[in-house]
Every structure is written in C-alpha cells, then in structure tokens.
Design brief:
By secondary structure, this protein is α/β, with parallel strands linked by helices. 39% of the residues lie in helices and 22% in strands. A seven-stranded mixed β-sheet has the order 15-16-17-14-13-19-20, sandwiched between helices. Strands 10-9-8-11-12-22 form a six-stranded mixed β-sheet, sandwiched between helices. A three-stranded mixed β-sheet has the order 1-5-4, with no helix packed on it. Helix 2 packs across helix 7, helix 3 crosses helix 4 and helix 4 runs parallel beside helix 6. The chain is globular and about 75 Å long. Bound molecules: nicotinamide-adenine-dinucleotide. Nicotinamide-adenine-dinucleotide binds next to helix 8.
C-alpha cells in the first residue's frame, strides 16, 4: 500500500470523521523521502470539549455493557487486526521510518495488548472474604474510572496507543486519544477497525493536534484519567498538571538505557544484541541501548567488533527489504542529533564511527544518519547524560561489574538495562543492585509483554501504576469495598 496523495486528517468524534475547528494544519512527511503524506489539524480546546462530552455520554452505556459482551468485540477486533497485519506494518514504516521488519514486530506488540484486554471478564473480577467477622463479609468490586485521555509519542504509532485504549475500554471506560502529530495515521486505522468490530460510537475518539489538545484534556472537568507516553520534560509537565486538576495520571517518560558487557559474555551474540538494541528503529525506542558499559579486559575487542558490525548496516527507506537502518523522524530532530554529536566531540568523547559519513547522495531525500559510536565516554559528558534518541551509541569502560552498576545508577533515568554475561552470580548482583525497572539478561530489548507492567523507574516514569498488566487494570478501574452483615 502506498499513500498516493496527502490526506487532510479529521478528528473522530462520536463515530464520525469531523473537521477540526482549527485553521492550522501541520505537514506530515514520510521521513525516508521527505514527501508529504498527510496534513494533520492542530485541533482546538473546542474540539477536545466536543470529543470529551461525547465520550462522557458513551461512557454511561458502555460501563453498563456486560463485560463478556465487551470482550467479544475485542475478539472480532483481534481478528481484523490480524487480517490487516501487513497493511498496518507498512503504514508504520511510511509514517515513522522504521524498517518493515521493526514495524512488523511492533504490530504484534500492539495485538498482544488487545489479546490481554480480551481477558477483561477475568481481569475485572473482584474479591470476597466471606467471614471477616461472624456473619460479616467483605468484598471488592471493580468499576471503570470514566473518560480517559491518551497522549502518545511518534516512535511507536501502534504499540503505544495499544498500551492504552484497549485495556481502558475493556475495563468499561471511554477514551479520547491524541496521537502524535508526527505519526497520526496509524491511530486512524486502529479506530476504523475497532468500529468495524462493533465498538459503539463515542467510546473511542481521536482529537489530532499538539499541546493545545494536551492542555484541553488535562484541564477538562470531564476527563478522569490521563495516560501519557513521551519525553521526560513533557511527562513531568503532564503529570504535575494532570494531578493538579485532580486526575489520575500515568506518564511514561524518556530514557538512557545502559547495556553492561562482562568479559565472560558470549561475544557474537552480545555484539548482535547491542547492534539490534542500539540501531534498531534508528535508536528511536524508549528501550534502545544508548550506552554500553564494558569491562576493560574486552573493551577494545567489543569496540572493534561493534564498528565492524555497524559498517554492515544498510541505510535507507525501511520499505526496502535489504535496508536495516531507517531515517530519524524529522529534519529538525536530525539537526539536534548532529548538534549532540558535535557536543560529544567537543567534550572529548572519541568519535570512532561517524554515521554522518554514511549519508550518500544516492539515498532518498529523507532524514538519515548512519550508526554513530563514541568511545571513552564519561559521566561528566552531555552525550552520556542526555537522551539523544537516534542511532548514536556511547561506550564507557569500567574495571568490573560493581563499577558498571554504580555507573549505570548515576543516570537520572531508569527505564531499561541489559547485562551480557554467562555468570549466574553476576546476574544476581546486577538484578539486586541496579536501579532500573526493566532488565534484560542476554536479551537486547527487554520490553515486557502486555500482561506485565512496563515498569520504568526514576525520571523514566511519573505516577504509581504503570502501563499494561495488572497495573494497567488497576489504573483503569476504581474499587468499591463492601462490608456486609447478613445474620
Ligand atoms: P514528545 O514528548 O515530544 O511528545 C509526546 C506527546 O506529547 C505528543 O503527543 C506531543 O504532541 C505531546 N507534546 C509534546 N510537547 C508538548 C508540550 N510542550 N505540551 C504538551 N504536549 C506536548 O515525545 P516524542 O518525541 O513524540 O517521543 C519520543 C519520546 O518518548 C522519547 O523521549 C522516548 O524515550 C519517549 N518514550 C517513552 C516510552 C516509555 O515507555 N517510557 C515509550 C515510548 C517513547
């Protein structure tokens, strides 16, 4: 499927595609070609108000819909998503730039969330203790929260929305989604297919746009909860503003993920893992490997092998089969990444592979950067401290595992980390002492599946209940405790 002409997008409110009240539209280019594929409205607070009010009305009926009946719509939805699998993957590559293989994997991660949400009859069950005292029982019932607003980033146009709306809706809430204005197309297909599966009008709505829509949701009296995924400063803002307005908020934020390599690691698999973790999806994953912390005994070997393996990556349009490194999302982002590389050089990090040199004239006019590697990075450098969100990898050399853990723990982020080793004792020390919420052992991107919480720590997460798993169910439900005496 190719997008022929730039489509002017509409909002989806109460089961209808409706024009935004704005006159401001933003161009959405294919990052691999620069070609405009859509124009997205920067909707107004008036549009948000309309969507939220409709969602509130729909909620009144939806929350009373028996849970198994809701669940059956999810089975049909699942079937439709499977039938449209390739189309969805291709659309991800066109709007986001990641390779088709990465996009294909992302579709599955999204579908897994729908599978988890289909289990709503089990997930929504309460608890009873029949005798808390003589003739007195205590029971817990789950209810939806109300209207949920969802705000998503550009880097997973399918998976991240699927962390939110399927489970929220399965739990009986209605939903207003604001997709990333940089990748707004996939959300539309997700909604269309859900409607085809039989979702009632108004339960799932889309309002396209940027900060005005976000603020409209945060400030709206009829929005009860906010799920956010995006960069750290915006997550912090969304969390503090949303909670100030009395809402339940979960805000998943940025990252700087460290992979630790010990001398006893299986080196071929380790190199393959790091290359996939650092340069897959052009480094634009919240679980991407951004830093390799390697013990000195194998550091030279690891750096040389990484350079060699990075040399083999083919840069280009992710729809081409032989390409394994796509573009970054925008020219403005590419500019910031170039600045970060310059800064790294000025700070004294050793640029051992400069991905800017891979950008040759035969490439399409997209936003490309080859795999870039800095060696001899230290914790006083910005190139280490800040999330760059691109195919840029830093190497840090340490004496041993204990030093590697201490170094990793200096980061203000705590999303993901990986340890490459064959030692059980090392795994134990790492698991106990590392201050990060999602760990991998010889697994390059340790993103948990939909039935576990996506549990970032420190500045990678704001809130109490994470996305997915029982945390997600608890976030999208509120409980009533009933204590009764029947004698
Ligand atoms: P972003 O923060 O720029 O945008 C995320 C959302 O917030 C978008 O919908 C955007 O419209 C909105 N937004 C942006 N600026 C805003 C502002 N000033 N006020 C109100 N709303 C605003 O993030 P992005 O660049 O789209 O996505 C990449 C970031 O997301 C990275 O930092 C990445 O680590 C993070 N991310 C985190 C996770 C996680 O699970 N922790 C998952 C995916 C992505």
């Amino acid at each position: 499927m190719t997008v022929q002409t730039a489509k002017q997008l509409k909002n989806f409110i109460n089961g209808e595609w409706v024009e935004s009240t704005t006159d401001q539209y933003q161009s959405v280019p294919n990052p691999a070609t620069g070609e405009e594929i859509a124009r997205v409205p920067l909707s107004t607070k008036e549009d948000v108000d309309k969507a939220v009010n409709n969602a509130r009305e729909a909620y009144k009926l939806w929350k009373k819909t028996p849970v198994p009946k809701r669940s059956r719509i999810f089975y049909k939805y699942h079937q439709l998503l499977m039938e449209h699998y390739e189309e969805l993957a291709e659309l991800i590559t066109i709007e986001n730039g990641k390779t088709y293989e990465d996009a294909y994997g992302e579709v599955l991660r999204g579908i897994e969330c729908v599978e988890f949400a289909s289990g709503a009859p089990h997930l929504m069950k309460g608890e009873v203790l029949p005798e808390i005292a003589t003739n007195i029982e205590s029971s817990m019932y789950r209810y939806p929260v109300g209207v949920v607003g969802g705000i998503t980033p550009f880097n997973f146009p399918m998976m991240v929305p699927c962390w939110m709306f399927p489970l929220a809706i399965a739990c009986g809430n209605s939903f207003v989604m604001k997709p990333s204005e940089q990748t707004p197309l996939l959300a539309e297909r997700l909604v269309e297919l859900f409607m085809e599966a039989g979702l009632p009008k108004g339960v799932l709505n889309i309002v396209h746009g940027a900060h005005d829509v976000v603020n409209g949701l945060l400030e709206h009296d009829e929005v009860d909860a906010i799920s956010f995924v995006g960069s750290q400063p915006v997550a912090e803002y969304v969390y503090s503003t949303g909670t100030r307005y009395g809402k339940r908020v979960q805000a998943l934020a940025g990252a700087k993920n460290h992979s630790i390599v010990l001398g006893d690691a299986e080196m071929d698999k380790t190199i393959e893992g790091i290359i996939g973790g650092a340069f897959g999806s052009a480094g634009q994953r919240c679980m991407a490997t951004a830093v390799v912390v390697v013990t000195e005994d194998v550091a030279d070997d690891v750096v040389n092998r990484l350079i060699e393996a990075a040399d083999q990556l083919k840069l280009g349009d992710g729809l081409k089969k032989d390409v394994n490194l796509g573009p970054v999302i925008r020219d403005t982002h590419l500019e910031r990444v170039h600045q970060a590389i310059e800064e790294g050089v000025a700070e004294g990090a050793k640029l051992v592979r400069d991905g800017r040199e891979d950008v040759k004239s035969e490439l399409p006019p997209g936003f490309f950067l080859g795999a870039t590697i800095f060696d001899h990075v230290s914790s006083d450098m910005k190139v280490w401290e800040k999330e760059i969100f691109a195919p840029v990898l830093s190497i840090v050399r340490v004496k041993n595992l204990t030093e590697a853990i201490e170094f990793t723990n200096r980061s203000e982020f705590g999303n993901g980390s990986v340890l490459y080793t064959t030692s059980g004792a090392a795994v134990r020390e790492y698991r106990e002492d590392i201050e990060v919420g999602m760990l991998g052992v010889n697994v390059n991107v340790p993103a948990p599946m939909a039935f576990f919480p996506f549990s970032g720590w420190k500045k990678s997460f704001y809130g109490d209940l994470h996305a997915n798993g029982m945390d997600g169910v608890n976030f999208y439900t509120r409980r009533k405790m009933v204590t009764s005496r029947w004698s």
